[in-house]
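Q: What does the assembly look like in three dimensions?
Context provided by user:
Components: two
Sequences:
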Amino acid sequence: MTLWLRARRAWLLAGALLLQFTLSCLLGGVLVPSPSLAAHATLDIPLRVFLPLILSCALVHALSDVIQLERGATRNTAVADGLLVAAVAASAVLLGLVAAALGSGDALVAARNTIGYVGFATAGAVVLGPPIGAMLPVAHVILVALLDSGRTHIALLAWPVEPLSSGVAALAAVSFCATGVLATARLGGVQISALDARGRR
Amino acid sequence: MSFDFRRSPAIVLAPPMVLVTFFFLSGAAGGPAYYGLSQLAQAASAVAVIAPICAGLAAWEGARLRRGGVARLAPARCEGRLLLRALVPTSVAAAVALTFGFGVMLLSGPSLRASDSVVVLMAAGVLAGHAVLAYAAGRRLPALMAVPGAVVLSWLWIVYPIAVSPLWVRHMTGYLSTCCDASDRLAPAAALAPLLLSAGAILASAILLSSVAPAIRRLAAALALAAGFAVAALVASGLGVAPTVARGTADLVCRDGTPRVCLWTEHRGVLPRVQATASAIGSRLRAHGLTTPPVVTEARGRHSGAWRVGVTPTASELDIERILLQALVPSLPACARLHAYPGYAAFGAVALWLAELAAHDVPPYIEGATPEDRREVAAVGKLAPPAQRAWYSENLAALQTCERPPQLLTVKL
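A: Here is the predicted structure of the complete assembly.
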């Protein structure tokens, strides 16, 4: 277990979680005037939409670097990896609730986005490999920023910029998270590494 | 070299990059289509979408070399050559997207000058700065941190400073979305500041790629980046909202007569019509005992008492008359931005009174004219001509200062 925790860079993940939480509380409300291709103007997108990418990238990085010794492990490391994804998502929600209790209501939006990005990135990493998996939420967020018109967007596609009250956005985030947890638990970091190795040729 | 191209995702991402550039430019605010500098600046503003993609690609190339353990092997090539070779596909993709952007914006065949090429140089410098720094990050950080980090930070650095005060910070990124009107030139500081910052980023990257001890390397790289930022900030700190300076009078084409008319060379085609209309307005106003400035010009700043206008090559007779009449009403004084400005109440009435006096056909819409202004002008029309001139002089003076209230007949202030 100790080896697994070190291999999965538990301290890096804890640091990324705290960094993201701190930045979300301090700078989450800062508005980024993003040029919109759909509205032919700039749209103000809160920084809290971008900040959860820190944790999703750190998690994919932690899951992707599987050591050879794990191939002979007697425990099912794939399930442990799935639980790790779930634990990271749960921690983000817990910190979001703490921040909300302290008066930063928008921290829950960051928490929702975190669980969505984490699931999106890990599911993408299992299917397409870690580099593409880590880039999926990044590309999605920037495309949403570029293509959102600010008025008549499709909530299911632009879920990261939806308000906290949006049920569709919450559903999308939870669905991504569940997919990420299940895909990682079913296939696990070893499979990620194998796909990555095949990708490297 | 062909191997580099086969391996690089730049080739796969080049078509989407061009597509995004096209959509970005099709939604750009757009300056005068006939003014080359404006079109080049709009095209260069596509760095907002090209630079993050380039940064991601460059970080990926750097991470690929890191993963391959190139730095651990006996060096056959220096770091500079490795960098140049690794960034060739990224540079080609960026050059294709940027050239496409410039091509799209220059399709309208605007006037171009040799000095406008500084915009192209600046855009290329900005892309180089982003790409080289991202490559260095890729060489020193894990790919899964470096690549997304490079994309997001590059994107935020270009788009976020628009929201930052002081205003000049936005001119350090090379995002020229607010440049330029036909009366403007790009301020040298606005072109130089992003280049200096890019030079700082490239210097920081060179330090990061060196084989100095890690702690010293990081500190020196941070200092180089901070120094580049400080020098660029010093250069850009004199700029305001727009990265522009007034265009030089050498670009004016003048036509003698009454009045003398000087327009930008791109507006040469409407020169005779502007002069004829200005002359007609001047005659009508003289018949009422009023004078008009002797020079109609598009130049900003230098000519005190000039009749300052801004026309377009496609302006109709009605447009020209409206532009000339509006130009007779003074623009807001500088104090109006900071203090109460009672003169504002007279704007519409003065503009409407001038239009009724001097226009061939009174335009149906006068900027700023309200039903109250129409009542005021109707009341003024009932006065004797000397009293009307006195009303005009009094309110014209009120428009040019923040201390003097206007003297209106029907509106009590």
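Follow-up: Strands of chain A lie at 31-36, 41-46.
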